[in-house]
């Protein structure tokens, strides 16, 4: 199946742009993030998801993440490493004049920004949003919608947005953003957890990325024919 050529690609960070040397830390952060989201949902009436990307951000849900990063003893390069094949893929997308952005549930201060600087990744992204930059974390689409609002050139209805993430909540966030945005937002899975959500919603095997090296080759074969 031929992929729709994107005009903008939004990457998640943990597990998607970089991977953890010790997966236990990532699993712990993901578990805490999911637990906080589940608990808050229990005490709230189930409401239709709304676009809050123009609303001011707050600090709820940040305490646990801040404490974990405050007390870690290792530098970021001892905690994470770039995902295999991410640099050639980013270089290729940039060469195709495809705008790139990053939307992460992780903290930026003392963590995310350090990662981008350490691994020379910041130069690829036009916009970077982290947990403290949004009002609601994934699976809410707030982060994705805020990225679109912050882009130098506002996306139009004809824009095709890819969102690549490694967790089910990344897929859910992209699907929700697609319903609220005037442009098309397409979720892509990098890894097994997100793949389950792609398959569950019958979004197509072409939205599953098992290897950035293989995916890069697929894009070369399809886009270079255009």
Short description:
The protein is built from nine helices and eight strands. By secondary structure, it is an alpha/beta fold.
Question: Would you mind describing this structure in some detail?
Answer:
With 226 residues, the chain is of the alpha/beta class. It has a single domain (8-223), classed as Rossmann fold (3-Layer(aba) Sandwich), CATH 3.40.50. It is built from nine helices and eight strands. The strands form two sheets. The protein has a six-stranded parallel beta sheet, sandwiched between helices. It has a two-stranded antiparallel sheet with strand order 2-3. Strand 6 (160-165), helix 7 (168-180) and strand 7 form a beta-alpha-beta unit. The longest helix is centred in the first third of the chain and has 20 residues, at 23-42. The radius of gyration is 17 Å and the shape is globular. The two termini are 15 Å apart.
Main attributes of the structure:
226 residues; alpha/beta; Rossmann fold; six-stranded parallel β-sheet; 9 helices; 8 strands
Predict the CATH topology: Rossmann fold
CATH architecture term:
3-Layer(aba) Sandwich
The portion of residues forming beta strands comes to 5-15%
Supply the number of structural domains: 1
Strand ordering within the main sheet? 5-4-1-6-7-8
Distance between the termini: 15 Å
Q: In total, how many beta strands? A: 8
Radius of gyration: 17 Å
Uncertain parts: none
Write the SSE topology:
Elements: E1 8-11, E2 18-20, H1 23-42, H2 63-71, H3 76-79, E3 80-82, H4 86-95, E4 99-103, H5 108-118, E5 127-129, H6 142-150, E6 160-165, H7 168-180, E7 184-190, H8 192-200, E8 208-209, H9 212-223
Parallel strand pairs: 1-4, 1-6, 4-5, 6-7, 7-8
Antiparallel strand pairs: 2-3
Helix pairs in contact: 4-9, 6-7, 7-8
